[in-house]
Every structure is written in C-alpha cells, then in structure tokens.
Amino acid sequence: MGYLSFFCRAESTVSTSNSLTPSPSFSSSSTTTTSKKQNNKEKEKPIKIQHFHYSDLEAATNGFSERKLLGEGSHGYVYKAVMVSSSSSFASAPEFIISNNEVDNEIDILSKIQSNNSKLPNWGRRVRLALQTAKEIDTLHSSTPPVIHRDIKSANVLIDRNFNARLAEVQCEQPNNSLYTFTGNLILQNQTLPVSPNQLLLRGCSLRNTEYIVGVVIFTGHETKVMMNAMNVPSKRSTLERKLDKLILTLFATLFVMCFIGAVGSAVFVNKKYFYLHLESSEEGGAQFDPRNRFLVFLLTMFTLITLYSTIIPISLYVSIEMIKFIQSTQFINKDLHMYHLETNTPALARTSNLNEELGQVEYIFSDKTGTLTRNLMEFFKCSIGGEVYGTGVTEIERGIAERSGKKIEENISSNAVREKGFNFDDPRLMRGAWRNEPNPDNCKEFFRCLAICHTVLPEGDESPEKIKYQAASPDEAALVIAAKNFGFFFYRFKQLHCFLLRTPTMIYVRESHVEKMGKIQDVPYEILNVLEFNSTRKRQSVVCRYPDGRLVLYCKGADTVIYERLADGNNDIKKVTREHLEQFGSSGLRTLCLAYKELHPDVYESWNEKFIQAKSSLRDRERKLDEVAELIEHDLILIGSTAIEDKLQEGVPACIETLKRAGIKIWVLTGDKIETAINIGYACNLINNEMKQFIISSETDAIREVEERGDQIEIARFMKEEVKKELKSCLEEAQSYFSSLSGPKLALVIDGKCLMYALDPSLRVMLLNLSLNCHAVVCCRVSPLQKAQVTSLVKKGAQKITLSIGDGANDVSMIQAAHVGVGISGLEGMQAVMASDFAIAQFRYLADLLLVHGRWSYLRICKVVTYFFYKNLTFTLTQFWFTFQAGFSGQRFYDDWFQSLYNVIFTALPVIIVGLFDKDVSASLSKKYPELYMEGIRNVFFKWRVVAIWAFFSLYQSLIFYYFVSSSSLSGKNSAGKTFGLWDVSTMAFTCVVVTVNLRLLMICNSITRWHYISVGGSILAWFIFIFLYSGISTPYDRQVSFSLHSEAGNLIIPR
C-alpha cells in the first residue's frame, strides 16, 4: 500500500504472490514470483521505502511548475510528474514542504493493512487493491478541476467478498439548503442505483438500530445542508421601521430647507456696506463671504450648514433601537416562564429581533389546525369497512355540538375496551377476532392488512405487542399501525435485504391472528417492492407488495377526494355509504383517510416497474416524474373503507382565541381537513358560534358533482368559476347589508380548496378579499401549502394589514414566510416551521402572551424611543438654527465641538434605552385581562404623523425659549470676573438647558418609573456637569470662564415643560 503515495496510474494486472521484491515502479512487464504456503500462513516481508532525490523530483515536475500542480494535499502541494527512467507517473511533494520523517511515517501507516478479517489478504491481492485504488485516484487527478484525496489509507478502501476494491461513482445535485430533498445516483458495478433523502445522513444526525454502515461523504464543510441552513430567516422589516424611514426622509427634507434658508440669508447678508469686515479679502473673509460672487457664497454656506445642522438626523437611533430589540428578544421573550412548556422543556424563542414591535400591531392571524390548534397526538377512533361504521366513542366536538343544542350525550365504554397511546377505539365487533363473524370479513381482513402494510413505519425494541415502539413520519401513520396491531395484524419486523433500499425489495413481517381460524397465529412475510410516498400534492401513499403465494397487490391510502377519483367503476352503494360516513366523521371533528387496493398482473407490474426505476434514477425533476409514473398504476382501485382519527384540541386554545378576538384580531384557520371537520373545530375553539351568520362556499354540491361526472375538465373549470363567482357575489351583497346594519350578526366564511382556487383568480380575488374583510372568522378547508401562502399574501398586500401566520409543519413554511410575522410551533411535525419562523413557541395559547404582552409593550416602547429621539435631536439642532440668524448666516457654530459630539453619546443616551426596556403602562396580567388595550397598536395610535407634529411643536417652542431667553438675559450680565458673557458662555448655558430639559421631559412621558429611570436621568445630567467642570479648566483658544458662574446663571432659567 505504500506505493499509493507515489503511483497515480497503474494499468497492469499483477498475478497473486506471497512475496514481492520492492521496486520503484510496476509496469506491464512486471514479474512476479510465487512461493509455497507454510502451515497455511503467509509470511509478510517488510516493504522497503523508496526514496527519490530532490533533483529528480524537480526535473520530473519541470521545476515544480504550476502547470504540474494538482492541488494541496494533507502534507503539502501535490504535483504530477513522470520519471524518465521508468516512464511511470507519480505524484510528489517537494522536500522543503514535508520532512522525510513525515513521509516515512505516512507510508509506514499505509503499508499496514487494517483488516477485521481473521485472515489477512495475501500480497497479490494487496497489490491488486493498490492498483485499483491508484487507478481511481488517477481519475480524480485527471478531473477538472483536479481533486486531491486527503485521507488515503487502507481503512478507507472498501472491498467485496472477492477482494476487489468496491469502487463507485456518486452523481448528485449541487449543494443546497433543502434538508428534506436530495437527488442522486450511485453507479456501482455497472448498476445505477437512485439515492434519495432516505439514504442521506445529515451532519449532526445519529444513526439508530444498526450495527455499522458504509458511507460516502457527499458534502463537507460549508456545503453541508445543515451549514447552508445555519443562517437567519430571510430578513423582514417591521411596518414601524418602514414608517421610520419616511420620518428620516422628512428630516432630510427639513435639513435641506434649514440649510437653504441659511444659505439664501448668507448670500443676501454679504454686502459692500460691510466694508469694514473685509469680506472680499481672501485673508479674512475668503471666497465664502465675497459679496462679488453671491452664488458661490450660497453654495459654500449651504455645505457648511449641512455639516452644522447634521445633528437633526438621529444616526444613533438605529443603534439604540437594535440594542433595545436585542435585549427584548433575548432577555424578555426567550426567558418568559409564562411561555415555557414544561412537558417538552421548550421555551419561547425569538429567532429575530427585527419584528418585536410588529407583534403589537397584528390584525390578522392565519393558523394551521393540526398540531397548531390541536395536540397532533392522533388516536384511532372510528372506521368504516365495507359500508359499515365501527366505533362507539364520543369526541370532544360531538359533546360540544350536543351542549350547543341543549342535549346530553352519555358515552358507554365497554369493559373490554383497549386503551393505548394512539388507539382509543371501542367496538367489540372488531376486537379479538370477532370481525370474522361480521357480514364482510374479507373486507375487514383487507382493511387490517392495508393498515399493517401500507406505511413507512419502523419498529423499535422487543418484538412483542406490549414493548414494541414505532417510529413514524407522522402521528397519523403510527396510529394506523397501532390500530392494525390491536386488530390482530401485528407489524413487528422490518428487514432490508441489501444495503440499498432502492431496487432491491424489503421484507416486513406481520403476525396475523384469527385469520384462518380462531386462536391461530401465523407470521407472514410481505415483500415490499415499491413505495409511492405521500406528499402534499399527491395526498396519498401507495405500496406494491408481494404475498407469500406470489400475488402482487397495491395498497393505497389517502384523502377521500383523491381516492374517489381513482376508484374503479361499480360498487356504487358502498361508495355512497362510505361518503356519508366520511361526512359524519368530519362533523365529529375526526381526520379521515380512505383505503383502497387492487391486484396487479405480473406483466403489468414489470412494465410499470421499468418506468418507475427510470424515474427513480432521474437526476432532474425526479419528484415530478415519480408522480407521473404513480398515476399510471394508481387507478381502478377497489374501495375498502375509511379511517377516522381524533386529534384533540390543545389546552387553552378556546380561551386564547376568545382573548385574541376581544383584542380586535381576526383569526383565519387554513387546514387540509374536510369542511365538516373544520367547521366543528371552529366551534370547539370558539372561532365560530351559533350567533354568527355562516357563508359556506363548497364544491360538494349536486350541480358541481354532476358536471364533474362528465369528465370534461374544461367544462368543469368554466362551470366552477361561474359558480364561485355567483356565490361570492351573493355572499358579498348579503354581508354588506349586514355590515350597514349595526344590529346585524357577526359573519363567518367557510370555503374549500377547489372553490378557493377559482376565487384566487385575478378576476375574483378582489371580491373574495372584500367578503373576507367583512367577516370576523374565516375557515379555508382542503387547502394546499401554496394556497395558504396565497391567502396570506392576499390580505397582506390587498388589505395592507399586519398579518401573522402560525403553523407547525413543513406545509406551513410558505404561509409563515409570506406573513409579516411568522410563528412556528415546535411540535411533532419536525422543525421545518420553526426554522422558517421569526418566533417559536411550544403551544398555541402562548400566542396571547407573545402578542398582548411582549408585542404590545415592544410597540409602546419603540414608539416612545423613536419620537423622543426625534424630539431631542430637533431641539438641539434648532437652537443652533436660531443662532444662525444672529450670526449673520455665517455658519458660525453655536456649540463647542465636544458638546455636539457627546450629546447623543453620553448626555442623552442611557435614559432612552431604559425607557425602551422597562416602560409599561399596565402589567402583563392586566394586558391579558383587558385585551382591548391591544387595539391601540392595531390603529397605530402612538406613531402617527399627528404625534410627530406634536413632538415637533415641543422642540420648536422649547428651542426658541432656550436660545432667546438665554441670549437676551445675558446681554447685560457679567460673570464673576466682571466680564460680559461671550459666545461660549451663552452656548454653554443654552446647552445646559437642553440637556436638563430633554432628560426631565423623558421622565414625564414614562408610564412607569423605576430606580433605573432615576439613575439614568440623574446620571446623564450629572455627567454633563462633571464634564463641563473639568472641561472649563482646560486651556483652549476660547475665552472660557469657570463653570460655577455659568451654571449659576443657567440655574435661574425656567425649564419649560
């Protein structure tokens, strides 16, 4: 193996031998010797390390030319070279980069075969492995750009049973940040094997339930998917920040006006009658005051005043706001124990600090249902098999419906009822093999087998019904497999027949009870040939399996809409009855799926499987091609029945929604459930009540079904668009009549996905928006992830309202990113929603604290910080502006440079930050007790132009008082030295008035004052006096007096309020 350090091209075939005479090269004429085995053991001879002289290396590489440079290896630079004597190519590294000891040690390590086998391979096999590996390294060196293998050692060379190097080529997509998609191929032994996310182990993940693996590193470093996701959510800016930008532009306009006035005044002021000022002299006045060129005077003065009045632009405002928001997020939101979920040990998480105040202005909330409003803890509750309903339980929704109608439901629980996590089913007709006595036992058997086979669940732990655990992609799948187990079809083992679950089949083992005769248990292996996985577009999952007797069967489960479209003709009675059962289940708030199957002819399957393999191996549009291939086999299905799974509401959801409604927030629920399920969930969580007038726009009407049965897609689209338009117009007219009447009822809109698709058409979306904005609650059913985002954007852009989206799964990501504020719930559907969100919480009820407490406080605080910054900077700058009139528009500064530099940094910096962190008008408990206070943020009460104008008025009159009162009272005044007050004396007194007033003014606008307010305000004022006391003692070019005389004069001034 040591030769691998030098040889990069080896085409020869070397016969096996037990000993080799080391030589500097191998060629096609290489000779081999053989020796006899001694006691069936092979004696290894030490490999002599071949050294090359530096001059030979230099000559072979043309003086280490850059044209020969392959790249940088682990110990130095790697060059491609040819020895003239042997015509053998090798890669080398110059001696001045690596020492001989390092080379010797590296080659010595490579020379030792690290094998787990009890018997080491003979030397001939070792040489063959070395040559095979060298050939592949040469392929890497010949690629563009050249690739350097930085970790060549025997442990990294995989061999097969025939002691051949297991060399393969991996083709895959470019590095990207999509954690849940991967497209690639593995070319191994002239076979192309497709690689999907199922074979991809992400950085930071742990592999379970396997002893060892053989892996290939695909992406490294910053190209790994995890690292490419290690970035912030796409930056969003709050509405208040965008309004702040307009305010800054207004200040720039004000700055220009002030400078223009001063520049015009300067051009008018300079005149020849002021000859004694020598304005035309280049030594005294310079060109800036030359009366002979007033336009130049105007321009120069303009630029001078821009520098002088630049303090009107609050540059430090953005720094202060970012600091305040960061502390609000990390110390207040993230550490709020009221939003800490003890069961999952999950605190709230602010993933961005840009949108804190946006939380205080939300008017529309778009919420997913499953896992967001509900617990996402699925329990198998009821089912329909062959037109017969099974399950006697009563759901929370059914109890709520009964209470609203004044009825009382008593639930009779059987003494033999089975209770298990994921299984809350009670019906003795199916339990313990009693299903064999039902009128439709064959349907029951197919139903249970479909549950046990059609899934991607992995079993863990002991192979016993009591101890086994299932790892599933979703709680729904786990609940269905658990149900199959309790019905006597126990899926207990999953076995991969080969390393790659790609072309080769997989075996699953199901322990079936009561199939042949009562009491008999048999373990049945099913060969899984193909899995057509579920996604939000297909809304179904299929599995092709081979029975032990050779039969090929396709099992399919999915949403009722997609399954019914693919059913074979016939059995109309069962289809009709099952559809009625689905509506009953939906009315009870249950999640439904339909189950179907079909037997496949081997020839049909083989023909289809070739297309499936081709689509599976495609590097481009693999998902689309797989969907197209699935359509070729998922048809003419036979309906088995349907399942009904209960997902209970989270704790505190109804109370939270009621509180948010009182706060003036409108809540929309966007779900993929049936329309009956969604309506009843709306009732259960107080989103909809009996006093509301409901507008229901559904595609489940007799007229639409009649058109759909004809199968003409163009006619269906035209007819549905006209029907949706008619319904929208009718509902909008009725809604406007209710809206004009003050005593009219509150309105609720319910619309399903098919109708929503047409309602979002550009010609109808305005009508949909107007109708929706007149409703207090909106429920969208059977919607896709794209439709969720479209509805969110419709309100965000069309109504110009602040929106918030909240969800827990990957299908909510687009909706979360489309809203002004995205909130992810860290639940059982993975972390996709959290990673795409701006804020993350564990339960929906925490939304009340996030909005009504932290959102409202942040909005109030940021508004005060912005308006106060505007006030204090404008006040300071206007005093300088008034002095310009008295200074002949000369551009003479009124304040000392240090005063201007430290005004925003020290003398007024800390108090405004304290206000931004601790100010609050009411406590957290009162904020939730009286949620109506939140409407101030929705109406943007604290940051309107009227509010800005009031603060501007304060700055205007206070700056006038500061300047003219101080300057006029100092005309005849004298200091302790008997001298009249000069410019710096008057400006110091005026600056003292500004510092004291703006700091005390801040205390006046605070809703709550703590010791930190007193410390910050008092400390800022004290800092000014300490500074001027020390600064007045420094010798400067200006005639400054002692600070005591200045401050005694300033103390006589009245501080305006």
From TrEMBL:
The chain crosses the membrane at residues 247-270, 295-319, 865-883, 903-922, 943-966, 981-1000, 1012-1034. InterPro entries: ATPase_P-typ_cyto_dom_N (IPR023299), ATPase_P-typ_P_site (IPR018303), ATPase_P-typ_TM_dom_sf (IPR023298), HAD-like_sf (IPR036412), HAD_sf (IPR023214), Kinase-like_dom_sf (IPR011009), P-type_ATPase_IV (IPR006539), P_typ_ATPase (IPR001757). Its EC number is 7.6.2.1. It is found in: Endomembrane system; Membrane. This is Phospholipid-transporting ATPase. It is a multi-pass membrane protein. The keyword Glycoprotein does not apply. It comes from the Eukaryota. The active site is at D368. ATP binds at D368, K369, T370, E477, F534, K557, R591, T671, G672, D673, R782, K788, N811, D812. One of its GO terms (molecular function) is protein kinase activity. It holds the Pfam family PhoLip_ATPase_C. It comes from Arachis hypogaea (Peanut). One of its GO terms (biological process) is Golgi vesicle budding. Residues 15-35 have a biased composition (Low complexity). Keywords: ATP-binding, Magnesium, Membrane, Metal-binding, Nucleotide-binding, Translocase, Transmembrane, Transmembrane helix, Transport. Residues 15-46 are annotated as: Disordered.
